[in-house]
């Protein structure tokens, strides 16, 4: 099929003529006029952008196997793109039945949001949809695309993949298709996809809608913020992201540097937890939540898959191990937000640059030891 364009004199539009027969350009009169479809310049621009987006290779945004390392072989994580808040008087007001959370049980960043959502009693206020752990060339799939046990459909739009949500919010989006995604059903937009900010939104934004016993829970209290920030400032680069910098390193030098920093940071945490129930004494804070999601994955995944194998948590860090097990076995928000099958399947199946056979190890047994 080919086409011809004609500008309509005196009007801000074009007429586009489509024809598949090579003799079609020789039509005249009414037949010629009726073969045109009229489009405004605005419509033409939208069509052009849509065609350009359709032709773009989106697997560079969705396929982790195509992720590029830095020139020195190190891994650098891109910043999240959507950084809005939910607050009174703002663009996104705290409301019932307005927001939806999209997560993966496999993802430590998404697990942060599930834990705080549960701790704050937001289950009925913020519904959740869970993707399959099989993150392939199209990114995170919903159950409609991959019926993995525990995965769900997208109840809002019937999306096949998380990337569909990103393009619905922004057709020109060029970042990675990550979870968690905090979605606004009213404006059909991504409110925020940065887990560290979502957990703070959940911490206070919906206090007017929850019981008093949940409202008083504050995991980022004013008096402890400097100490929490200080902990986060070394735990995130050294441990949370440190295991990824280790696992995705593509040179020996980058790997050796990253793995050393991981275990130096773990050594520091081990000393902090000596004689303490939590990182800041007897008070559970967001610093514990942010650290815990990495520690719970350490022995089942990061020791083998990411080569963080200088020590295991269970045999090398008794204080961290006790702290992690206590949170898992005594606080349902932590246990219910953890799915070891999704965790192990995702890492070993999805990261083909590291594990091309996609064989998922059986061990360790058990995934977490009892108290």
From TrEMBL:
Q: Give the matching PROSITE patterns.
A: GST_CTER
Q: Which Gene Ontology molecular function entries are recorded, alphabetically?
A: glutathione transferase activity
Q: What InterPro entries would the database entry show?
A: Glutathione-S-Trfase_C-like, Glutathione-S-Trfase_C_sf, Glutathione_S-Trfase, Glutathione_S-Trfase_N, GST_Omega-like_C, GST_Omega/GSH, Thioredoxin-like_sf
Give residue numbers for the site Lowers pKa of active site Cys: 302, 347
- Enumerate the residues binding glutathione: 140, 176-179, 194-195
Cite the GST C-terminal domain residue spans from the record: 221-347
* An annotated GO cellular component: cytoplasm
- Active site per UniProt: 107, 244
Under which name does UniProt file this protein?
A: Glutathione S-transferase
The record lists the organism as: Crepidotus variabilis
Q: What is the lineage of its organism?
A: Eukaryota, Fungi, Dikarya, Basidiomycota, Agaricomycotina
